[in-house]
């Protein structure tokens, strides 16, 4: 295989599905008037329903302009909940500001540290995210979310060995009935093993993730990458085909399956996959990936211009 192909067949791992955050569950509170607690509860209910804009409006109404000391912990809950709504709307700057305010009112507010850590992570500030999750772990050492989120932040910061330790701790704390969450943790631990080039451990974790959640394309994608790294191109084709079945517009899965087919000698199948990938990249506005895929197609066609071959797919 040419160096050109080796360079392109880089592993593009699937991102973690989501950080684990939950709105604070609180009883109605009285701030400056009787309806303030009702607005807080209504805001939390709107978040549960996914109506984050309305949640913010209700939480705004739950916050009085004048605050006395006795109500600081209640306001901390409101700010922490509004932070979560901003997180869902990807307004990370405002989410950080709200969580910081919540922490100012109640320095022991676990949810505020957890959510601010997520906001820092999504801004790419992994060090700040780790600091907040350290505090969350101190406040609630039995809550698996703090370990899991810190593990993701450490992985983002290139500290994969430490991330694995956190994922292990999360696995000891998570309820066994949470099969989908367990699958996420195994998948993310597998990615950390993969980055550390422990492919055997990565494969074991991806297998567990798939066993727990057979409809999560990310685990198949990652296992396909691990198969490719191990030289198991048949396994790679199998897993990337499953990704495409579950997520038909996944252009990178077409590219990776195309590369695996090329290495197996199925050139026409490789061309078909790369053509499909270029179409999706074009539709998705991913110009660089689109141009790279066209370069691959050109290179492949040049190599097989005088060869006729039956494709696998």
From TrEMBL:
SUPFAM superfamilies in the record: TPR-like
Stated name of the protein: Uncharacterized protein
Pfam families in UniProt: TPR_11, TPR_8
GO process annotations (BP): receptor-mediated virion attachment to host cell
Alphabetical UniProt keywords: Repeat, TPR repeat
Matches recorded under Gene3D superfamilies: Tetratricopeptide repeat domain
Gene Ontology CC terms, in alphabetical order: cell outer membrane
Segments annotated as TPR repeats: 76-109, 110-143, 183-216, 217-250
Organism, scientific name: Nostoc punctiforme NIES-2108
Record's keyword annotation contains Nucleotide-binding: no
């Amino acid at each position: 295989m040419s160096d050109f192909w080796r360079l392109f067949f880089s592993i593009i791992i699937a991102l973690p599905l989501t950080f684990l955050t939950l709105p604070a569950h609180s009883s109605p509170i009285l701030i400056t008037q009787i309806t303030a607690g009702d607005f807080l509860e209504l805001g939390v209910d709107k978040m549960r329903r996914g109506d984050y804009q309305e949640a913010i409006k209700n939480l705004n109404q739950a916050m009085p302009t004048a605050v006395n000391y006795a109500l600081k912990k209640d306001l901390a809950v409101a700010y922490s909940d509004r932070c979560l709504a901003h997180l869902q709307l990807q307004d990370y700057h405002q989410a950080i500001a709200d969580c910081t305010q919540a922490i100012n009112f109640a320095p022991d507010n676990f949810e505020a540290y957890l959510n601010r850590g997520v906001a820092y992570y999504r801004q790419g500030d992994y060090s700040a995210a780790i600091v907040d999750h350290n505090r969350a772990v101190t406040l609630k050492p039995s809550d698996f979310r703090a370990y899991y989120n810190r593990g993701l932040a450490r992985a983002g910061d290139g500290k994969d060995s430490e991330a694995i330790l956190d994922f292990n701790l999360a696995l000891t704390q998570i309820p066994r009935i949470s099969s989908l969450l367990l699958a996420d943790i195994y998948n993310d631990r597998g990615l950390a093993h993969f980055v550390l080039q422990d492919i055997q451990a990565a494969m074991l974790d991806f297998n567990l993730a798939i066993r727990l959640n057979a409809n999560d394309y990310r685990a198949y994608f990652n296992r396909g990458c691990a198969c490719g790294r191990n030289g198991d191109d048949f396994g790679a084709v199998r897993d990337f085909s499953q990704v495409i079945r579950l997520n038909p517009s996944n252009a990178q899965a077409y590219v990776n399956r195309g590369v695996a087919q090329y290495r197996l000698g199925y050139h026409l199948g490789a061309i078909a996959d790369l053509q499909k990938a270029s179409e999706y990249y074009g539709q998705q506005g991913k110009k660089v990936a689109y141009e790279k895929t066209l370069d691959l197609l050109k290179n492949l066609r040049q190599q097989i211009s005088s060869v006729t071959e039956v494709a696998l797919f």
